[in-house]
Amino acid sequence: MKEIWEKVEAAHQIGICGHVRPDGDCVGTCMALYLYVKKNYPQKAVNVHLEYMPERFAYLFDGTGYQEGFENMPECDLFFSLDTGDLERLGAAAKIVEKADTCICIDHHISNTGFADINVVDPDSSSASQVLFELLDEKKIDKSIATALYLGIVQDSGCFQYDSTSRRTMEIAGILMEKGVNTSNIVDRTMKQKTYVQNQMLGRVLLESLLLLDGQVIASRITQGMMEFYGATKEDLEGIVEQLRVTQGTEVAIFLHEVGVLEYKVSMRSKEYVDVSKIASHFGGGGHVRAAGCTMSGTYHDILNTLLEWIDLQIKDRSK
Ligand code: AMP
Ligand code: MN
Ligand code: MN
To answer: Atom 13 (ligand 1): residue with closest C-alpha?
Structure first.
């Protein structure tokens, strides 16, 4: 992929963004590319803008110069869209893309629409960070770049657990480890540690969860009222759907977060045979076979009933 680095060489102003509601892979990939360009192309003007920096990742990137929000993002001739399957998921940054000469997309979503000028998309890859690693010169990766890439890989592979984890994922992790990454600290602080409010929300969601379709589906939700009651932010909802997913005997976990009047952000996870990306894509969202999301309108029970019909169809198709 020499072409990408030729574009970097030729660019005057480089902009880097990921998707809205940034997760660890989004943050890790954006920060890794930003630090790599800053270190290896010091004469280039480069900016990284995230919608916001989630608190649990911030300590890894103190003093690196990332920006939160897109209001002050300068126009750029070269734009990198990372870990993002479609233009809409870039949020307000989509405006900057329109004005850029070239947009390069580095991603791993199966639902990727190929919206950029250059698309490097590998749906079999554990993470966008892994896709990015393959484009970098290993010798030019220092400890800070390796730390960002490691964050992206551990977060999106569920700490090397999901099917997307390959031999290559492990090899890359090993290479990054040798660059001096504090691997146990990253797992502990960014994956295992929970705030008190996070634990309270998790408890509430589990208590109120429903087992549906003969126990093959587990579902629960958080309302805006609950968010206010516990003083929670959307960051406090991290990891809840994963906890629902590990319920013995279930195939699909559904978690709904009320974001407006009769409007829910839907998160879905599956274990073996239901393709949740197909369902999320049908409702205007996307993601991966085993982890996907979308936004839906209606009451909690209406949305659940709609999703259950789709899941049931897939389960019935399988037993044909
Ligand atoms: P989440 O449930 O928010 O953790 O998302 C799971 C996966 O689905 C992630 O890879 C997201 O990038 C993707 N995803 C979530 N919501 C959407 C959406 N509205 N549109 C497209 N992809 C989404
Ligand atoms: Mn992501
Ligand atoms: Mn990702």
So the answer is: 287
Confidence at residue 1, expressed as pLDDT on a 0 to 100 scale: 81
d(CA 145, CA 131): 14
From 3-7, 181-185, 315-319, the region with the lowest mean pLDDT? 315-319
Distance CA 31, CA 36 (A): 8
Domain CATH for 164:
3.90.1640.10
Confidence class for position 319, pLDDT limits 50, 70, 90: confident
Listed residues: CB within 5 A of ion ligand 2: 23, 25-26, 83
Number of domains in the chain: 2
- Give me ligand 1 centre to Cα 88, in Å: 12
Predicted TM-score (pTM) of the model is 0.89
Q: Do both 75 and 159 map to the same domain? A: yes
Read off the pLDDT of each residue in 174-203 and give the average, rounded to a whole number: 96
Give one word for 65, left, alpha or beta, with left for phi > 0 and alpha for psi -120 to 50.
left
| Backbone torsions φ then ψ of 43, nearest 5 degrees | -80, -5
Regarding whether 181 and 203 lie in a shared domain, the answer is no
Residues 135-149 have a mean pLDDT of 98
Q: 240 is in which domain, residue-wise?
A: 196-319
Which residue has the least CA distance to atom 18 on ligand 1? 285
Where among 163, 192, 221 does a domain terminate? 192
Q: Measuring from each residue's beta carbon to the nearest atom of ligand 1, which residues come in under 6 Å?
A: 85, 89, 241, 267, 285-288, 291-295
- pLDDT of 247 > 80? The answer is yes
Residue 14 sits in the same domain as residue 162: yes
In the chain, the percentage of residues whose pLDDT exceeds 90 is: 97
Name the one residue in this structure whose structure tokens are 């690196």. 64
User: For residue 180, how many other CB atoms are within 10 A of its CB?
Assistant: 12
Q: Is 241 found in the same domain as 145? A: no
